[in-house]
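Input record, target 12 of the design panel.
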């Protein structure tokens, strides 16, 4: 939606702005009339000061009312701006939170943060400056023009002829400004993205000795932003200069005309001449003000365009249904029917995966690095939306079920489980939100996950703060927290991304034993790297470049899938070596 339409939609604001503009216009004319009348009485008619006391009081009242309404006019604009900004922020956040996983796949968190904060703020000038000024200027200039025509139509004609020059130049310069403001926003979002990226990868950059190179890149990006900002400012100054020149020229022409008629032709009264001269600067000033505000408004238009593009960008949302999953103790059956998924056009895709996982079966997904194993696991978890095909759970499409029902049945143990800022206990209990867990139960799962020794060493035990701002944990310890979550939840489906990096023998042993124990009550689908896991799987899915090239037991695949056999031989070689 255009900003113009958004502003018009705020009917109450628009009416209030029009009303205040009428009052300001009326006060400006009254003010000029009073000043001219006072000057005429004192200087031309040489009346005593007491003769104009009442007019002076009236003038003071007019000043006050005009000032007050100008303040109210500004306030209404600010109110409209904050309402629109709030709406934009809400729409963006709703879009991102409607499908956080899809959003995060597309990366660029820095860009999104800048969009929600800085770019939305850029919308402000349109509503707080340009829109109120446009209403003010159009109403006030009409009132002033009518007043001038009433006193001296020739000056009115000069005003009508010169006034359009202001909007014409305004549009010419404004077009350029919009382009420059667009460039400025591009540079700002690029700078934010680059900065966040470097910050997140600081350790990697340092290790590769790329710290100073990256600093130079950030500097270049920041200089680009500076140049773009200076360009915008250059146009702002140029625009003020041109507007100033045109209004000076208009006032000079009127002064010249009024002067000629007053002094040489003597066919205009002093009152009319002085009144026109008092009104002319006000008339050009109000047009000039809309010119300057227009400049600021153009920046807002560029920002609005950027936000609209983001909002319009299609983001397919996963729509869950409200079917209930069976309460049976047995895990549900899982069937992948021609399941395909793509990260986007020209990106990696998984194609037509067909497989059936019986309850309590142990499935291993194997394949070379980048073949799509983790992507398939995400798809099975219901985190990604398939592009075609479907996954059937107990013979019904997954997304017909209630989201909570499905997630309650499974646990996903990733290679690098996320630890939230909080205590060890909080981090384990997230597996069963809202459920009362006794201390005994907690001690049991801690023991099962091999965390007892670690926790015993800690002064605050399970109340020790970990994660952001707390005590750091090693990769193996994080995996064990994930296992504790799994033991607490006792899921019917376990999705496990087996670590590729070697864990210490202790953690490795715990992991193996725990997964074996958990799998007695669950179907377990593992992205497998260890020969041991692969060999004992009931069914192995062998992926290559997003395609399922082999399916079966270890023995079957060794016989009929050549690449699988090569991979196993290489692994055995590694183990032997
Ligand atoms: N968010 C994303 N956007 C675009 N492409 C992605 C995204 N995430 C992963 N990919 C690409 O998808 C492909 C498959 O990735 P995936 O992580 O599923 O592979 P993998 O088989 O699990 O690899 P590995 O064994 O190395 O972990 C890779 O080529 C990867 O570059």
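The sequence produced for target 12 reads:
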């Amino acid at each position: 939606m255009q900003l113009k339409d958004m502003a018009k939609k705020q009917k109450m604001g628009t009416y209030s702005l029009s009303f205040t503009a009428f009052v300001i216009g009326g006060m400006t004319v009254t003010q000029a009339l009073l000043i001219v009348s006072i000057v005429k009485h004192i200087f031309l008619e040489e009346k005593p000061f007491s003769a104009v006391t009442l007019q002076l009081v009236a003038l003071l009242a007019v000043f006050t009312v005009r000032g007050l309404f100008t303040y109210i006019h500004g306030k209404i604009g600010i109110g409209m701006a904050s309402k629109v900004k709030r709406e934009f922020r809400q729409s963006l956040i709703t879009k991102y939170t409607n499908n956080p996983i899809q959003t995060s796949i597309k990366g660029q968190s820095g860009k999104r943060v800048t969009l929600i904060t800085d770019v939305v703020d850029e919308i402000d000038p349109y509503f707080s400056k340009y829109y109120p000024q446009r209403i003010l200027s159009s109403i006030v200039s009409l009132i002033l023009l009518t007043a001038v025509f009433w006193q001296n139509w020739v000056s009115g004609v000069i005003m009508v002829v010169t006034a359009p020059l202001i909007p014409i130049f305004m549009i010419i310069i404004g077009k350029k400004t919009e382009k420059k403001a667009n460039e400025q926003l591009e540079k700002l979002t690029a700078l934010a993205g680059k900065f966040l990226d470097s910050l997140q990868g600081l350790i990697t950059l340092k290790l590769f000795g790329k710290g100073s190179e990256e600093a130079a890149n950030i500097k270049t990006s920041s200089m680009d932003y500076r140049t773009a900002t200076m360009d915008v400012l250059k146009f702002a100054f140029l625009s003020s200069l041109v507007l100033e020149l045109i209004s000076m020229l208009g006032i000079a022409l009127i002064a010249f005309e009024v002067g000629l008629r007053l002094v040489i032709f003597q066919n205009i009264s002093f009152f009319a001449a002085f009144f026109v001269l008092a009104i002319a600067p006000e008339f050009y000033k109000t047009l000039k003000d809309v010119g300057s505000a227009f400049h600021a408004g153009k920046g807002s238009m560029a920002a609005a365009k950027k936000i609209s593009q983001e909002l319009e960008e299609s983001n397919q949302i996963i729509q869950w249904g409200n079917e209930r999953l069976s309460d049976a103790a047995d895990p549900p059956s899982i069937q992948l029917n021609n399941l395909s998924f793509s990260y986007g056009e020209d990106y990696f895709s998984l194609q037509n995966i067909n497989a059936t996982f019986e309850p309590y079966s142990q499935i291993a997904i194997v394949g070379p690095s980048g073949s799509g194993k983790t992507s398939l696991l995400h798809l099975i978890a219901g985190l990604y939306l398939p592009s075609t095909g479907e996954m059937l759970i107990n013979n019904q499409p997954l997304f017909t079920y209630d989201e909570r029902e499905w997630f309650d049945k499974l646990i996903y143990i990733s290679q690098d489980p996320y630890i939230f800022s909080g205590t060890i206990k909080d981090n384990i209990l997230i597996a069963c939100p809202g459920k009362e867990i006794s201390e005994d139960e907690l001690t049991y799962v801690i023991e099962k996950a091999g965390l007892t020794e670690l926790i015993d060493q800690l002064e605050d035990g399970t109340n020790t703060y970990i994660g952001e701002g707390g005590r750091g944990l090693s990769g193996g310890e994080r995996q064990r927290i994930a296992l504790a979550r799994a033991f607490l939840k006792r899921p019917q489906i376990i999705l496990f991304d087996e670590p590729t990096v070697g864990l210490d023998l202790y953690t490795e042993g715990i992991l193996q034993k725990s997964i074996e124990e958990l799998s007695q009550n669950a179907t377990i689908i593992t992205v497998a790297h260890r020969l041991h896991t692969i060999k004992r799987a009931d069914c192995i899915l062998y992926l290559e470049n997003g395609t399922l090239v082999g399916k079966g037991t270890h023995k079957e695949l060794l016989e009929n899938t050549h690449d699988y056999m090569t991979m196993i031989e290489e692994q055995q070689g590694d183990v032997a070596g």
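The pocket of adenosine-5'-triphosphate is lined by residues 105, 343, 347-348, 367, 369-375 (CB under 6 Å).
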